[in-house]
Design a protein that fits this description.
The protein has 2 domains: 179 residues, MFS general substrate transporter like domains (Growth Hormone, Chain: A), CATH 1.20.1250.20; 210 residues, Growth Hormone, Chain: A (Up-down Bundle), CATH 1.20.1250. It is globular and about 50 Å long. By secondary structure, the protein is an all-alpha fold. The longest helix has 32 residues.
């Protein structure tokens, strides 16, 4: 950890960017727990909870092509500050959702919030090289990823406590304040970026983004194995998207803690954060960064995801749920980190952004479909919570088998690299 602490100590600009990220992520989990509790109180339907996740996922998918254009065209620090301010205003609108007939407003505000969040994330990632030296880029990005997982664990726990003991309205106010605080940290950064000119000024931003994504898809279509690598996250998302929805009734209905489902949900999210944060670090320390080690890591990730999901389906207690959730989180984190590294190593720089845009779109669609299916099955098919989770475990087995087939084909890096056309 010394290398991460050293970067924070000696680089004031990155330290402020990191603080902004910390408090912003903290507010995100306050928001999710409060919104989930509010919907559970006003509706209680699994489909209604699925719609909450769809309102968070689909705007990310719809805005991703435009977000990259904005991040390149405008000064990035200013763009980050304004996204935080706008999100603070939008979150305060959640205070108006106080009865069942206003649940639609919660979905609308959530969609608006995540449309703006879709701009914040790529802008922040593009801004990092401006505030750190080239030799510190890996450290900065690793710290950024670890921070997300840590804030999931801490933010979920604090968000659960705040929602349970202070109420959903207080949680929403605290969320808005985190965005204001994040914007304040960003104003303390004295590094500015310049907007980049684009070719094809006569074309609309939407058309430019669409054409760039199409080119990346054509590249992948010509190389099926690379396409499979770009779909690894989607294979995981079609499992953990369903689990994300079902964690709420697990907490609210099956295993409330001291009659409070919100506390249980906070502990579940904390377990996810522990798994996703420390899982990739432990697996990397064990297997290293070599080609074979990364492939084995992904196999471990899929197995851990399957075991964790099956454990949730069979869970007899909250403690069992937390253990299975941590196992599932290890799988999720390992799949996320090592699939990204594979693409970064294999995709040429000129196509990397477009390939990652395709990967993100496919991942978001898979997760959206999965959340909708889980809510529908829980509400309309007469399935118990355990049965729906078991169906997710069965899908996880299929995804794991698919990955093992890919693993067997690409085990030898030299032969595989000979097939890759740059």
């Amino acid at each position: 950890m010394k290398i991460y602490l050293s970067l924070l100590q000696r680089n004031r600009n990155f330290r402020n960017l990191w603080f902004a990220r910390v408090v912003s992520n903290l507010g995100d989990w306050f928001n999710l727990l409060a919104a989930a509790a509010l919907i559970a109180n006003l509706s209680g339907a699994g489909t209604a909870i699925s719609f909450l996740f769809l309102a968070r996922f689909l705007p990310l998918f719809a805005m991703s092509p435009f977000a990259g254009v904005l991040a390149d065209r405008f000064e990035r620090r200013t763009l980050l500050i304004w996204t935080d301010i706008l999100r603070a205003v939008i979150v305060l609108g959640f205070l108006l959702v106080d009865r069942p007939e206003r649940v639609w407003l919660l979905y609308t505000l959530t969609a608006l919030q995540f449309m703006i969040s879709a701009v914040f994330t790529p802008t922040e990632q593009a801004y990092i090289p401006a505030v750190v030296e080239k030799d510190d880029l890996v450290t900065a990005n690793a710290l950024d990823s670890f921070t997300w997982s840590t804030m999931l664990a801490i933010g979920a726990l604090l968000g659960g406590l705040a929602t349970a003991f202070l109420g959903v309205q207080t949680a929403f106010i605290l969320d808005a304040l985190t965005f204001v605080l994040s914007a304040w940290f960003l104003t303390r950064i004295n590094v500015r970026s310049r907007g980049q000119p684009h070719a094809g000024e006569g074309q609309s931003a939407a058309k430019r983004a669409f054409l760039e994504i199409v080119e990346g898809m054509r590249y992948l279509a010509g190389q099926p194995t690379l396409l499979a690598f770009a779909l690894i996250k989607s294979g995981g998302a079609i499992v953990w998207g369903a689990v994300n929805v079902l964690e709420i009734p697990l907490a609210e209905v099956a295993f409330p803690l001291n009659s409070s489902g919100t506390l249980s949900l906070g502990l579940i999210y904390a377990a996810v954060g522990i798994g996703t944060g420390f899982g990739p670090i432990a697996v990397r320390a064990w297997l290293g960064d070599a080609w074979g080690g990364m492939l084995k890591a992904l196999s471990i990730g899929f197995f851990a995801m399957t075991l964790g999901t099956l454990g949730l389906a069979l869970a007899p207690s909250l403690g069992w749920v937390l253990g299975a959730t941590a196992m599932r989180g290890i799988g999720t984190g390992v799949i996320w980190v090592f699939s990204a590294v594979l693409l970064q190593l294999l995709i040429p720089d000129r196509l990397r952004g477009r390939v990652f845009a395709f990967e993100f779109a496919a991942f978001t669609l898979a997760q959206s479909f999965s959340t909708l299916w889980a809510g529908y099955a829980y509400d309309n098919l007469g399935w118990t919570l355990s049965q729906v989770l078991l169906s997710a475990a069965v899908i996880s087995v299929v995804m794991t088998a698919g990955w093992l087939l890919i693993h067997a084909r690409v085990r030898g890096r030299s032969a595989f690299m000979a097939e890759v056309r740059t």
